[in-house]
Each structure stands twice: as structure tokens, then as C-alpha cells.
Amino acid sequence: MELDELYTDLILEYSQSSAYKKPLIQPNRKMRGVNPSCGDNIELELKVDNDIIQEIGLLGNGCAISQASASMMAELIEGKTVKEAKELAKTFIGMIQKTVTNGEELKILEEARAFQNISNMPARVKCAVLSWHTLEEALGED
User: Fold this and answer.
1) 47/67 Cα distance (integer angstroms)
2) 48 three-state secondary structure
3) Does the global pTM surpass 0.85?
4) Percent of residues, the chain, with pLDDT higher than 90
5) Which of 15, 65, 117, 126 has its CA 20 to 30 A from that of 41?
6) In whole angstroms, how far apart are CA 7 and each of 14, 68, 101?
7) Where in this chain does the record put each NIF system FeS cluster assembly NifU N-terminal domain (predicted)?
8) Where are the domains of the chain?
9) Residue 3 vs residue 15, higher pLDDT
């Protein structure tokens, strides 16, 4: 199996994952992200306690790329500090924009590196980064 096929299978698997597709009871961070060009829409709910992301809820719908990216993001940030989650978002977005290309730096993204070549498909870039930008907004400047 070629690497591209492996990544395609991984994206498909995560796009169908329902692990985080649930509303949270009393989230203390909530943000909606919309990609008007294709209709992707995500409602990100977070429970942050003592600066740790305890729980994540993903609501909304969209294409396989946006859904897989959101699922991978949720898996990566659960249990992390707000600072670590912001660093992951910055690295992921940098990878997509090709401003972060160092393999060592990208290791923190784990399976989310499957999106590394999405920048070769400009129409899909917004799909891949929607949840990550929504996360940055939800976490704010604090």
C-alpha cells in the first residue's frame, strides 16, 4: 500500500468516527466555524478545567476532509493544556500553509500529518483547517 493510500484510508476512517460527535453537558468554551464556500459547519464545545482540555464535543457536518480533520484534532487536544492545544493548532495550520515543514516539528501532529499534502488541493485547504481555526477562536488569547 502506498503512503497516499494509507493517508486516504486514515482520513476516511476519521471522517466516519463518532467518538467526539456529541454535545457536552455545560461546556465552558463554545465556538462555531463555518466554511461558506462549501457548507462545512462545525460547533466545537470544550470543557476546560485548570487549563486542561478535559472534554471535546463536535457538532455540525461537512465533507470527509473537514470531519476527519476535526476528529483528529479532538483526539490530539484531549487532555492537553490550552497552551499545548494552541501550539498544535499553530503547527497544523503552518503545515497546511507550508510554513512549517520540519519533520521533527510535525511529529507532534501524529496522524494529522495525513493532511500534509492537502495544500496541493487549494479548494480543500479551508475544509482541513476549519476546526483548527475554530479551536484557536474558542481558546482565545488567554
Assistant:
1) 20
2) strand
3) yes
4) 82
5) 117
6) 11, 11, 18
7) 31-125
8) 3-139
9) 15
What nine digits make up the cell of 18?
463518532
- Contact between 127 and 64 under an 8 Å Cβ cutoff? The reply is no
Half-sphere exposure of 128 (CA within 13 A, CB side): 21
Q: Options 3.40.50.300, 3.90.1010.10, 3.40.50.2300, 3.90.700.10; which CATH number does 3-139 get?
A: 3.90.1010.10
Please check the confidence at residue 24 and state whether its pLDDT lies above 90.
Answer: yes
The whole-angstrom separation of Cα 36 and Cα 13 is: 25
Residue 66 CA, distance from chain mean position: 8
Distance CA 137, CA 32 (A): 9
The CA distance from 46 to 122, in Å, is 29
CA distances (Å), 22 to each of 27, 71, 95, in order?
11, 12, 28
Q: With residue 70 as reference, give the H or E element that holds it.
A: helix 64-77
User: Considering just the CA atoms, what is the radius of gyration of the chain in Å?
Assistant: 14
Secondary structure (3-state) at 18? coil
